[in-house]
Amino acid sequence: MSGPPARTASAQSAESARSRSVPPGGGPSQEVAAAPTSERRSGDRADWPPLPKRPIRGGARTTASPLARLLPRRPGSARGWHGRALRGRTRWGLRAVAVLVPLALWWAVSSIGVVDPTFLPSPVAVAQAFAEMAASGQLLTDAGASLGRVSAGFGLAVVISVPLGMAMGTSQVALALLEPVIGLLRYLPASAFIPLLIIWLGLGEPSKIAILVIGVVFFNTLMTADAVRAVPGELRKAAATLGATRGEVLRKVVWPYALPGVLDAMRVNAAAAWNFVVVAELIAAESGLGYRIVRAQRFLQTDRIFAVLVVIGVVGLAIDVGLRLARARIGRWVG
């Protein structure tokens, strides 16, 4: 009598693979195991073990886009390099301390008479001088003149520097052409151009605005180029993979990501613009806060000089806060 037919080696290996794919508790893999052996091969996807799940730090990101996960965390983020985020009351309390402590020291030094009031007036004297100048309309007129020069000079510098910085940050040709020249010119002090500007443009407004442009445009160009170069290459590659053209990558990826950095550069250079407008108004000016400082210096009116300095600080702080709010609103998705 003949016994059961002997199984071949291939049949035995197929049955062994089918037995390994069946989990102990059964489940979907049973259907795979029940499939005909001829339709399955060794190394099929059904034989792969499941990938391990990695824990998500800081909770699940339900609102972030997949591209946003490619972005590096910035040092100014809420839980970035600065550690725990401060509460609102604590933050405002520290800001109040930063203002009140120097003011208290100033009041204490002027009260005990360590310094002659002619050279260091008290805060009360400065407040009285501020009230007198504001009542006469001098402060408003001079602040308006200086603000107009800063707006014209700084705005023109931004219009020139941002396209140049974009070109340097995205094109190696533009970087090779412009970086040596700008790197050389930025070390030339803008105040050294005053005699030349007076000879070329005269004593009117063009020479004062030109000083502002020279003092801001080179630094703002390089800082804009750095902000553009900081755009992660993964974002550009992902956009190009999805079919975006070079112009679309610049317009929809590079510019939105670099815009917060461009605004930060403008915040820094806006303070430099106020420095240069005072320098420009010290020479051959008939209005402006710098002109008012020179007038007060001639008559040793230090309280009026301090009052003008306070006005410059307040106006500069208002511009900085405006740019910071714009940066927080425009670049909130960057972090």
Automatic annotation (TrEMBL):
UniProt keyword annotations, A-Z: Cell membrane, Membrane, Transmembrane, Transmembrane helix, Transport
CDD domains referenced in this protein's UniProt entry, alphabetically: TM_PBP2
Gene3D superfamilies: MetI-like
Compositional bias per record (Basic and acidic residues), positions renumbered to this chain: 38-47
The species this protein was found in: Nonomuraea polychroma
PROSITE patterns: ABC_TM1 (PS50928)
UniProt xrefs under InterPro entries: MetI-like (IPR000515), MetI-like_sf (IPR035906)
Similarity-based family: Belongs to the binding-protein-dependent transport system permease family.
Protein name: NitT/TauT family transport system permease protein
Biased composition range(s): Low complexity: 1-21
Cellular compartment(s): Cell membrane
Membrane topology: Multi-pass membrane protein
GO biological process: alkanesulfonate transmembrane transport
TM spans (from-to): 92-109, 154-177, 184-203, 209-228, 273-293, 305-323
UniProt domain ABC transmembrane type-1: residue ranges: 143-327
Region called Disordered, residue ranges: 1-82
GO cellular component terms, A-Z: plasma membrane
Principal location listed in the UniProt entry: membrane
